[in-house]
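help with these tokens:
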Amino acid sequence: MKFSAQQWMGVSDSHIVKMQHNHGLISKVKDAFEAMQAAAAKDGIDLQLVSSFRSFERQLAIWQSKWLGQKPILDIHGQALDIDELEDIQKIHGIMTWSALPGASRHHWGTDLDVYDKQRVDSCDTPFELVSQEYELGGPCYDLSCWLDEHAQRFEFYRPYHRYNGGVAPEAWHLSYRPIATDIIKQLDINALKMQIASIDIGGKAMILQYLDSLFERYTLNGLEK
């Protein structure tokens, strides 16, 4: 499939099919997810979306809220950092460990989604935070995580952030539809991304543009795919 820069950067959602609860995916990805969801239900897993397509504007709002200290910047262990003690490049790395640069998020593509076991989460007394512990032994989404280990590949989904490679923190909840995501990765154009970042108001802009090549390699590609 051919995608425009406006599409893979999340500026346009013309490639997205709308779903319930403000979710959206590429049509073929939606079909694959719903087939996987039905199979999970037969095994007692309530597989539901936490997040799917995310626009450039929404990703920018997330970035700005962290840059301005309205939301915490976390280290690789999930501990809050003191942003007053961080240089700009350290803040950028801190944000990108958990939240993508606007225009460089896989959630723009319509191939990637975050999932949870809604029924088990709803039965818990504690708030759901979308953290690793919830997908580990003893967590409400542990059975879901095990089920995905066994069955996600059958529906052509995989976990791009299943392990830490020095870039994005591990995200057991993040799935990607391999056939189309692989095509999109081949179409990414860092020059188009540079032009987009240069055209907006974003915290750390000068430093982002200075180091964009290495940031793109470390976090967007994440050491997994070229």
In short: DSSP finds ten helices and six strands in the chain.
